[in-house]
């Protein structure tokens, strides 16, 4: 059985292996021992804090095989962007010009560096072993974060975003970066992303062009990357799109990948998850597959299980399921159909 839980310091060696295997562009998962150690300490402090409003806390989750103890994935929630450093994006909107004499109006798409997305809750750091891609465990790794938000809404903003990794080829070359960022930093795309993961995107973003970049003046290969998802990032995109997330006019400053956005109240796993009373049972009349979580903070747990929920709002769980959820007979648990 797999269970999602908050990260612990003892996870560091396995977490570093996940970082080595992660997709280029997942900058929140750097392959660096000290940076990962800092992230773990920061996450532990966030889970322990008595939070009444979002203040930049970072909640780091890992997906663990309870039989082997092996970590097979991880994901994060940053409670509010812009609290500790500016959150930069590129806004993709038309720049309009007009000639009254010629009676011509023309709109040219342009990319502008901005901090419009400060103050949003950010989903990030999604990574799962290749062998578990497009399985119920992927849904668990992504959506259990949303169930945590549902259980503790005061810790998060009213809207949530995520940046999906943009296109780069098998050699790690990004046409979007080559057309824009490469001119301002003498760095290849992979190295720029690595530095961003080790430090922050702020020092890189501050050297980016401060004036609009007219999209038609970019090479066609770079234009084609705007809003394009890396093939290995498609699952993360698809899961959240089914949750009610939509693309908007913002893209990543390095690879042009799309940004997804949703109001908390409109996200399926938040709006439609419901509480039920756990009832210990050795046999389950399974009628469907569900995501199940407790409503804890530091002891938060979530699993995927075949369940049946009766009309009285009770859900039967085996002793193994209750143990995986760190829950007891009669405790309230949160459920939503997979």
UniProtKB/TrEMBL annotation:
It is an enzyme of class 2 (transferase). Keywords: Acyltransferase, Arginine metabolism, Transferase. Its EC number is 2.3.1.109. InterPro entries: Acyl_CoA_acyltransferase, Arg_succinylTrfase_AstA/AruG. GO terms for molecular function: arginine N-succinyltransferase activity. Transmembrane segments: none annotated. GO terms for biological process: L-arginine catabolic process. SUPFAM superfamilies: Acyl-CoA N-acyltransferases (Nat) (SSF55729). It comes from the Bacteria. PANTHER family: ARGININE N-SUCCINYLTRANSFERASE, N-SUCCINYLARGININE DIHYDROLASE. This is Arginine N-succinyltransferase, alpha subunit. It comes from Pseudomonas fluorescens (strain Q2-87). The lineage of its organism: Bacteria, Pseudomonadati, Pseudomonadota, Gammaproteobacteria, Pseudomonadales.
């Amino acid at each position: 059985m797999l269970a999602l839980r908050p990260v612990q310091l003892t996870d560091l060696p396995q977490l570093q292996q996940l970082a080595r295997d992660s997709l280029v562009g997942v900058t929140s998962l750097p392959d660096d021992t000290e940076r990962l150690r800092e992230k773990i300490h920061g996450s532990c402090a966030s889970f322990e804090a008595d939070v009444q409003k979002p203040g930049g806390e970072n909640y780091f989750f890992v997906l663990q095989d309870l039989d082997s103890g092996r970590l097979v994935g991880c994901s994060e929630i940053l409670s509010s962007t812009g609290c500790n450093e500016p959150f930069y994006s590129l806004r993709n909107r038309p720049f309009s010009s007009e000639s009254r004499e010629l009676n011509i109006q023309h709109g040219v798409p342009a990319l502008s560096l901005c901090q419009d997305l400060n103050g949003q809750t950010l989903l990030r750091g999604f990574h799962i072993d290749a062998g578990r891609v497009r399985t119920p465990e992927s849904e668990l790794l992504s959506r259990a974060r949303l169930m945590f938000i549902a259980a503790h809404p005061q810790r998060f903003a009213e809207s949530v975003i995520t940046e999906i990794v943009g296109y780069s080829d098998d050699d790690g070359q990004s046409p979007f970066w080559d057309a824009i960022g490469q001119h301002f930093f003498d760095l290849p795309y992979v190295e720029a992303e690595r530095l961003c993961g080790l430090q922050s995107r702020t020092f890189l973003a501050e050297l980016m062009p401060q004036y609009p970049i007219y999209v038609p003046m970019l090479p066609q290969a770079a234009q084609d990357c705007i809003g394009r998802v890396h093939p290995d990032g498609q699952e993360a995109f698809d899961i959240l799109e089914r949750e009610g997330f939509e693309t908007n006019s913002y893209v990543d400053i390095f690879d042009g990948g799309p940004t997804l956005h949703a109001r908390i109240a409109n996200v399926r796993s938040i709006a439609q998850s419901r509480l039920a009373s756990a009832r210990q049972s050795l046999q389950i009349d399974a009628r469907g597959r569900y995501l199940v979580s407790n409503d804890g903070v530091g002891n938060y747990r979530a699993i995927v299980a075949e369940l049946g929920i009766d009309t009285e709002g009770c859900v039967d769980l085996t002793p193994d399921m209750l143990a995986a959820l760190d829950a007891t007979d009669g405790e309230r648990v949160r459920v939503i159909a997979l």
